[in-house]
Design goal:
Largest interface: B-C, 54 and 46 residues
Order of helices and strands of chain C: HHHHHHEEEHHHHEHHHH
Shape of chain C: globular
Largest sheet of chain A: 6 strands, mixed
Mean pLDDT of chain A: 85
Oligomer: heterotrimer
Helix content of chain C: over 70%
Strand order of the largest sheet of chain A: 6-7-8-3-9-10
Low-confidence stretches of chain C: 315-325
Low-confidence stretches of chain A: none
Shape of chain A: globular
Structural class of chain C: mainly alpha
CATH architecture of the largest domain in chain A: 3-Layer(aba) Sandwich
Chains: A alpha/beta (254), B mainly alpha (292), C mainly alpha (325)
Number of helices of chain A: 10
Strand order of the largest sheet of chain C: 1-4
CATH topology of the largest domain in chain A: Rossmann fold
Number of strands of chain A: 10
Chain lengths: 254, 292, 325
């Protein structure tokens, strides 16, 4: 579904992402790990248009999307979450989700102006979709809470909810488990699996080894901007180069 | 012919530097208030205006010499600043930035009309002891007063720079801009710092007003244009950067001066804004902008 | 819309319709007309500042620009009023695009100050291009607003009463349009960008163009107000470009309730009427207005619309970004 070829980005003398080739198959959960500063979020920024690559290609469903603006990439089918919690702080949970439906809703202005049938139908559809996501996230009771008043864990879930609301086929999750306790991480694992079961391809960055080892079909390891390993969780946990990259860091292994 | 143009240019640059130093002086206060208190002080022009009036008042009604009226005027307007801060800014802690934008706007209305009521609409002239003596520097000449203004401006700005860099209170100010919460936890009294910053801003604006009041006349509306230009200089110079503001102010003063004589007097005021636009389009964080 | 809301709305519209009959003095009616005209400035600013969250300091200058455009279309090209109004809307959009394009390359306060810079430049161009605009002397003898076909049927809007209903109709239509606009996905796009621009981009909202549309729309609405102003007062001068008017527009939008539909309307009305109410104490007028402004900001944090929403027990509409002072 997604493939990068020789993807590279350099800032002045610093090569943050160096000749990375990888591919993501439809319906799989791919994890990306690596020490801090390895270039993982930079890689995501390249995929989603927040950065333009210096060289290399990014093929999404066969089409080169390198350098396109984020909104265009979103309309093509990719949605992402951010490392720092990103929601619409002043809107309620429900409104957050409704806003997420932007890319697939289209009402003619004429319809909205006179509240015609087309308008109410569209409204019902988005409300229904938002309702489904609320149920899926178990957040119905908080649907009218303003987002900035939610707990940290809830905001993170809401973030995923907004991504789901966009009905994109490919989700990029940037450290979804950051700051979560083991219990929340468990719930998150289940959530991500359920999302994949709906047919959505997931590519995630994480530091929580248990989460990564537990749910990822395959894992890619980055260090200093280069891909140093790729394979299933078992292979990765045994890979000597990976272990060396993490030596001295306080990470846990599965 | 070219020599005459050249001499005119140098002359204009010189007087532009004088104006520029005052723009910088005003803008530093605005920048401090914006950076430390997150307040856009719409009344800053009025503190400038009050500086001129208070100085005038002290000289004519109380017979103080000009040089003494300067620091006293700074003190008086600084005190007005503290009182204003308590009434228009303190009650709005935790509110969005435009709340203080509006209350200081209301404050400016009050101060401006207050000045009008007390002193009337007619322009006043401050007579400086340096007023009319000219100093010849090579091919150009400047009044002693203008040289005095420039020197005072640069010295005060220099003192501010050192203060912020070396003095305990100055460092506290920088700490607040970096991380407000952490500063409070370290024992810095935020309320006192707010009052102090506001008073400092008001005082420096007053000084600029008193200095320029002897060149131009003192009017209730004299603060209007300096306010807007001041903000332009703050943005041009970049937040948190005293040197940046000084240079931007000087550049602005010189640009205005040159365009006034070589292009047109009317458009020289607009130059500030044209320059600002051009600079921002090429350097979106300002000429010397960088994170504090 | 539920029954209660519909009732309140109808009541309000009824009062607005009857107002000139209740207050018969010509001068009072004049104030009402001016209040309605100035609400356009506030409604326009609210689109870019309230809904889309962009602090466009210079945007209210489009009121004066609209006034000049409309006057020049009438004086130099002999356009009838309705064509002037239309032309003003189109040209305001055009200028909005030209000015918005460079400004929107920047974000936050830099964007704001750049719009302000353009506003000041416009002021100086208008003040100094004497051949076109007569500079500080302003344009005079602007023909009054009228609708008609040919020489046979001309309905001229002279007098406060007719003008009141003309501008009232226009502002109610605009309010209706805006309330429906905010229900389209474009309107939701405005709010999304206000709340979180990067997140908006990643769900398919194109920040630059959505902000541009908001800005252009704001300029069209504000420009309309300018057009109504020109053909009512029949005199325009560069004074309207001044900073004071810009500040006043912000006051109207914020105290009314930023980002609400009726907020700018109410704020516009209050801050046109208030200075008039205090006209009796001419010398202290601005002091009183300033004091009232400070009090409103302190005691009505979410604006007047916000306070009303609170009284009805709901969360104020829509919530604002809070930063520590």
């Amino acid at each position: 579904m997604l493939e990068t070829q020789g993807l590279t980005v350099a800032f002045g003398g610093l090569v943050a992402v160096n000749q990375i080739d990888l591919s993501v198959s439809p319906g799989e959960i791919l994890g990306m790990i690596g020490p801090n500063g390895a270039g993982k979020t930079t890689f995501f920024n390249l995929l989603t248009g927040f950065l333009t690559p210096t060289s290399g290609r990014i093929l999404f469903k066969g089409k080169d999307i390198a350098g396109l603006p984020p909104s265009r990439i979103a309309s093509l089918g990719i949605c992402r979450t951010f490392q720092i919690t990103s929601v619409f702080p002043g809107l309620t949970v429900r409104e957050n989700l409704l806003t997420g439906t932007y890319c697939w809703t289209r009402t003619l202005f004429f319809d909205t102006l006179f509240h015609s049938q087309g308008y109410s139908r569209q409204g019902q559809e988005t409300e229904k979709h938002a309702g489904e996501i609320l149920e899926f996230l178990h957040m119905e009771d908080r649907k009218d809470t303003v987002a900035r008043n939610l707990s940290y864990g809830d905001q993170r879930r809401l973030e995923i909810g907004i991504a789901l609301a966009s009905r994109r086929e490919f989700l990029l999750l940037d450290e979804p488990a950051a700051g979560m306790n083991p219990e929340e991480t468990q719930t998150l694992s289940q959530l991500i699996r359920q999302i994949r079961d709906k047919g959505i391809t997931i590519f995630l960055i994480e530091h929580h080894m248990q989460l990564v080892m537990g749910i990822c079909d395959r894992i890619v390891v980055l260090n200093y901007g280069r891909k140093i390993a790729e394979g299933n969780p078992l292979e990765i946990s045994r890979n000597p180069q990976v272990i060396e990259a993490y030596l001295g860091k306080e990470e846990e292994f599965a | 012919m070219w020599e005459a143009t050249f001499i005119l240019a140098i002359q204009q640059i010189a007087s532009g530097l004088v104006m520029g130093s005052m723009y910088a002086l005003m803008s530093i206060g605005m920048m401090l208030i914006l950076g430390i208190m997150t307040v856009i002080n719409m009344a800053h022009g009025e503190f400038y205006m009050l500086g001129g009036y208070v100085s005038f008042f002290l000289m004519t009604q109380m017979g103080l010499p000009y040089l003494v009226s300067l620091p006293v005027s700074m003190g008086v307007v600084g005190a007005i600043g503290i009182a204003s801060e308590k009434m228009t800014i303190r009650p709005l802690v935790g509110r969005p930035w435009f709340s203080t934008f509006l209350t200081t706007f209301g404050l400016s209305m009050i101060l401006r009309d207050g000045a009008q009521i007390i002193w009337g609409v007619d322009p006043r002239e401050i007579v400086s002891p340096f007023s009319h003596k000219r100093v010849v520097l090579g091919p150009i000449f400047l009044t002693e007063h203008r040289i005095f203004v420039f020197v005072v401006g640069v010295v005060v700005i220099g003192l501010l720079y050192l203060f912020i860099k070396k003095h305990k209170v100055g460092m506290a100010m920088r700490a607040i801009v970096r991380d407000r919460e952490a500063s409070a936890l370290m024992g810095i009294n935020l309320n006192a710092m707010n009052s102090f910053t506001f008073a400092l801003g008001a005082g420096t604006a007053a000084l600029a007003g008193a200095l320029l009041g002897a060149i131009f006349n003192v009017l209730p509306s004299m603060g209007e244009l300096p306010l807007v230009k001041g903000f332009a200089v703050v943005i041009m110079g970049g937040m948190g950067n005293v040197q940046g503001i000084l240079f931007s102010g000087l550049i602005l003063g010189v640009a205005e001066s040159l365009s006034a004589s070589f292009i047109s007097l009317g458009l020289s005021d607009a130059i500030a804004f044209a320059i600002l636009i051009i600079i921002l389009l090429f350097k979106p964080a300002g000429l010397f902008g960088k994170r504090v | 819309m539920n029954r209660r809301k519909l009732l309140c709305l109808s009541g309000l519209v009824l009062i607005l319709l009857l107002l000139p009959w209740l207050l018969q003095a010509a001068y009072t009616r004049h104030i009402l007309v001016m209040a309605l005209i100035f609400t356009f400035s506030a409604m326009g600013l609210n689109v870019i500042f309230g809904f889309a969250g962009q602090t466009a300091f210079g945007q209210p200058a489009f009121f004066a620009l609209g006034a000049y455009i409309s006057s020049l279309l009438a004086l130099k090209l002999g356009f009838p009023f309705w064509l002037c109004l239309l032309g003003t809307m189109v040209l305001s959009a055009g200028f909005g695009f030209m000015i918005g394009y460079p400004c929107l390359q920047l974000r936050g306060i830099y964007f704001g100050i750049t719009t302000m810079a353009f506003a000041q430049i416009l002021y100086y161009i208008v003040s100094n291009w004497v051949e076109l605009t007569r500079g500080p002397m302003g344009l005079v003898d602007i023909p009054p607003a009228s609708f008609g076909f040919g020489d046979h049927f001309q309905f001229v809007f002279i007098g406060e009463l007719r003008y009141y209903y003309l501008v009232l109709a226009a502002s109610l239509v605009t309010l209706f349009f805006l309330s429906r606009l905010m229900e389209t996905r474009l309107g939701r796009g405005f709010v999304a960008i206000r709340e979180n621009q990067d997140l908006s981009a990643s769900i398919g909202i194109h920040p630059f163009w959505v902000k541009m549309i908001a800005f252009m729309l704001a300029c069209v609405i504000t420009g309309m107000g300018g057009s109504f102003y020109a053909h009512y007062v029949k005199f325009v001068s560069p004074i309207e470009f001044q900073w004071y008017f810009i500040g006043l527009t912000f006051i109207m939008v914020i105290t009314g309730g930023i980002g609400t539909i009726w907020g700018p309307f109410i704020g516009g009305a209050i801050f046109t009427v208030l200075p008039e109410v205090f006209r009796a104490v001419e010398t202290y007028r601005n002091i009183l207005v300033g004091a009232v402004l400070i009090l409103i900001v302190i005691f009505f944090p979410e604006g007047i619309m916000g306070k009303m929403a609170q009284w009805r027990g709901r969360d104020a509409q829509p919530a604002l970004e809070r930063k520590n002072a």
